[in-house]
Design goal:
Layout lengths: L14 H7 L3 E3 L2 H12 L3 H17 L1 H12 L12 H6 L6 H21 L4 E6 L2 E9 L2 E5 L8 H14 L3 E5 L5 H10 L3 E3 L3 H10 L9 E3 L4 H10 L4 E2 L7 E5 L5 H12 L6 E6 L2 H15 L8 H7 L2 E4 L3 H11 L3 E4 L4 H6 L5 E4 L5 H6 L25 E9 L1 H17 L3 H8 L3
Parallel strand pairs: 1-11, 4-5, 4-7, 5-6, 7-8, 9-10, 9-12, 10-11, 12-13
Antiparallel strand pairs: 2-3, 3-14
Helix pairs in contact: 3-4, 3-9, 3-10, 4-9, 6-7, 6-8, 7-8, 9-10, 11-12, 11-13, 17-18
């Protein structure tokens, strides 16, 4: 993110070296904050144009377009027979991955399921007044599509995060899309009992889920994170198919007044390596901490291969912001409403002031990758400020809460005058008569 170059630290390093590896330290001013928020919320017109073209092609031409885009974008030569992973391959995967990884997947799955069980919405009924009984009926969605990112690696953990809440909700059919699924993903699918996995990705997979093809079923809802093109495609199809949320390139905001610089730097790099467009921010009133974290980031970054996306995302979209006060740092954090919010030195007072985030990590030991994998909370989280309106993926995303009402003759007698008066005041005579005819 181009905040500008007015750093508070001395520019004694070679400029080319700084742009390559050093994390920028900037004063948090209103103009810096406004530039960041404007850039992040700007409409990604290029991604939407590309995604719209792909989605329209898949909608019109079905499998032929899906296979054509898979070859062009992912170098996948697909046919209707090779599109789907065989159940034999899924079953065999358990024996093809290390035992410690298998146990890790099982452990994470248990925690995710336990949290999901706590999230389950319930059916209920209540008598609001004599003769008027109102309720909520909770039913699962029929078919969902889980999108699993598959760029450098297939993120098999996302299968756990999307499929387990759906299973707890009672969804009967779970269809998975991943352009380059790994043995670990197959093993996770085997553990969960998920059997429908298609080798497809990108905006073309979103289009196939939304509109269906001869090979891919049309789903009721699409869930899962993705790159800017996947996120754009989800927005495009949302008029015709439900989606969970915009869950684009990851973002983290760490708000710290002190703490262990190497821990903070490690968390910055952990999120920065997701995607070249990832956003990683440290906001602090301490210039001393800012300098220490900057040095740690540079040191730790140099231990990562130059192919790691963190090298690019730290240049493009990341910075250390030195706020004039803790209150200003808090105000900025709430304006950003980040996907991940880390508070290494958490206090009850501070936590109560931070109201806008997708997932919160409290204390120095709460490393963000623990939430990404194994604490049980969901890593499919709102980005681009959507945390102001909702939290992460949960069981509630996979059910419908339908209201019910049952009115007795006594209830009708009590409510008919109320309804008739209100309906006539709104000019809806037939509404009033529909009640009065039952007297």
């Amino acid at each position: 993110m181009d905040f500008g170059r007015s750093t508070i630290q001395s520019a004694t390093r070679d400029e080319s070296d700084e742009s390559k590896s050093q994390m920028r330290i900037l004063k948090l001013t209103d103009s810096v904050a406004d530039r960041f928020l404007a850039r992040r919320s700007s409409h990604d017109a290029a991604a939407e144009r590309t995604a719209a073209r792909i989605v329209a092609d898949v909608r019109k031409h079905g499998d032929a377009a899906l296979f054509r885009w898979a070859l062009r974008l992912d170098a996948l030569k697909l046919t209707r027979r090779t599109l789907w992973i065989s159940r034999t391959e899924i079953r065999a995967a358990k024996s093809n991955i290390p035992r410690d990884l298998l146990r890790a997947i099982e452990h994470a799955a248990r925690n995710i399921r336990r949290v999901a069980e706590e999230q389950r919405p319930r059916s209920w009924t209540v008598t609001v007044e004599p003769g008027v009984r109102v309720g909520q009926r909770v039913t699962p969605l029929g078919t969902i599509g889980c999108y699993i990112p598959g760029g450098r690696f297939s993120l098999f953990s996302t299968l756990l995060m999307t499929a387990i809440p759906a299973q707890v909700a009672g969804v009967k059919r779970i269809v998975v899309a991943c352009p380059k699924p790994s043995a670990a993903l197959f093993a996770a699918a085997g553990i969960l009992g998920v059997t429908e996995i298609a080798r497809m990705g990108g905006a073309q997979a979103i289009g196939a889920f939304a509109y269906g093809t001869a090979s891919i079923p049309r789903v009721d809802k699409i869930c899962g994170p993705g790159n800017r093109y996947v996120t754009a495609a989800k927005r495009i199809v949302s008029n015709d198919c439900a989606i969970d949320m915009p869950a684009g390139p990851t973002e983290v905001l760490i708000l710290a007044t002190g703490g262990e610089a190497r821990y903070i730097a490690a968390d910055i790099l952990a999120q920065a390596e997701h995607d070249p467009d990832a956003i990683a921010l440290l906001v602090t009133p301490s210039a001393k901490l800012a300098a220490a974290v900057s040095a740690e980031v540079e040191s730790q970054l140099r231990r990562l291969p130059e192919s790691n996306p963190a090298w690019k995302s730290l240049q493009r979209a990341s910075a250390i912001l030195v706020a004039p006060s803790l209150d200003e740092a808090i105000r900025f954090a709430n304006r950003v409403a980040p996907e991940h919010l880390s508070i290494p030195q958490a206090s009850k007072t501070l936590i109560e002031k931070l109201s806008e985030s997708g997932s919160v990590f409290l204390g120095p030991w709460s490393a963000q990758p623990i939430g990404d994998y194994a604490s049980g909370t969901n890593h499919v989280l709102p980005t681009s400020g959507w945390a102001r309106a909702r939290g992460g993926l949960s069981v509630a995303d996979f059910v419908k809460c339908c209201s019910t009402q049952e009115i007795s003759p006594a209830g009708l007698k009590r409510l008919a005058p109320v309804v008739a008066a209100m309906a006539r005041a709104e000019g809806l005579e037939a509404h009033a008569r529909a009640v009065e005819v039952r007297k």
